Amino acid sequence: MTIHEDQTLPRHVAIIMDGNNRFAKKNQMQKGDGHRSGKNVLDPIVEHCRKVGIKALTVYAFSSENWNRPQYEVDLLMKLLEDTIHEQIPRMVKFEISLQFIGDRSRLSPKLRELMLHAEQLTANFSQMTLVIAVSYGGMWDLTQAARNLAQMVKDQRLEVDDIDEKTFGQHVSLSHLPPVDLLIRTGGDYRISNFLLWQAAYAEFYFTQTLWPEFTIKELDHAFDVFVGRERRFGKTSEQIQQEKIENE
């Protein structure tokens, strides 16, 4: 993809990295090898996003529902996540990328929670890009936590019920410090968002691909960017309004 000055790339990209197990089955690999293959795909994707100026990349590593998978797979995914964090820390420092995590940490091991916190603190001041890894995360959990926090504030008389609006609510969901998701990519051929960033992706453009995550390449990522650039984002307005605004802003 040739990036021109008049092209508006997404500020925030989210990826549902799906298809690891099917990749392993397709290639007659051992159980778990698909996840290991998928782990290696993330590095070049992160570097390319930083190179082209994406401000935030959020990836779905382990959902709230993934706890229901076979125990051996859950254990493997937790081990791979730990390995990934160890590997990412020096890369985040090298490329000045802030590494952050979202999700319910209460179900994670103390060792993993400590490692995540260490990575966040070590990279907190980097501003080239933000990489967010969603672990034990679900959009409904996220909204529930926001509602609970606001309810507690009302109970403590720190907030009036009438003051709760979309802006206030949005300040209490995950990633409130980042731009809304502009482009949501799902690999693996399924056409759903699987409880991922329900609030943050309210006006995201979706890009679904049959490509399994371990086979996802920078070339296809660039194609997704091309598709995004070619779409008209109206946010509830008409095409005529959007065109008129473009003329007025020239």
From TrEMBL:
Q: Return the cofactor note field.
A: Binds 2 magnesium ions per subunit.
Biological process, per Gene Ontology: cell wall organization; peptidoglycan biosynthetic process; polyprenol biosynthetic process; regulation of cell shape
Q: Which organism is it from?
A: Acinetobacter shaoyimingii
Q: Where does Mg(2+) bind?
A: D18, E205
Q: Which HAMAP family match?
A: ISPT
Q: Kindly list the GO molecular function terms attached to this UniProt entry.
A: ditrans,polycis-undecaprenyl-diphosphate synthase [(2E,6E)-farnesyl-diphosphate specific] activity; magnesium ion binding
Annotated binding of substrate, by residue: 19-23, 31, 35, 63-65, 67, 69, 186, 192-194
Provide the family line. Belongs to the UPP synthase family.
Which keywords describe this protein according to UniProt?
Answer: Cell shape, Cell wall biogenesis/degradation, Magnesium, Metal-binding, Peptidoglycan synthesis, Transferase
Q: Which residues form the active site?
A: D18, N66 (proton acceptor)
Cofactors that this protein relies on: Mg(2+)
Keyword hit for Nuclease: no
Report the top EC class in one word.
transferase
Subunit and interaction comment: Homodimer.
What is this protein identified as?
Ditrans,polycis-undecaprenyl-diphosphate synthase ((2E,6E)-farnesyl-diphosphate specific)
Q: Which EC number(s) does the record attach to this protein?
A: 2.5.1.31
Among Pfam families, the record links this protein to: Prenyltransf
A cellular component term from Gene Ontology for this protein is: cytosol
The reaction(s) catalysed by this protein are: 8 isopentenyl diphosphate + (2E,6E)-farnesyl diphosphate = di-trans,octa-cis-undecaprenyl diphosphate + 8 diphosphate
What is the recorded function of this protein according to its Swiss-Prot or TrEMBL entry? Catalyzes the sequential condensation of isopentenyl diphosphate (IPP) with (2E,6E)-farnesyl diphosphate (E,E-FPP) to yield (2Z,6Z,10Z,14Z,18Z,22Z,26Z,30Z,34E,38E)-undecaprenyl diphosphate (di-trans,octa-cis-UPP). UPP is the precursor of glycosyl carrier lipid in the biosynthesis of bacterial cell wall polysaccharide components such as peptidoglycan and lipopolysaccharide.
Membrane spanning stretches:
none
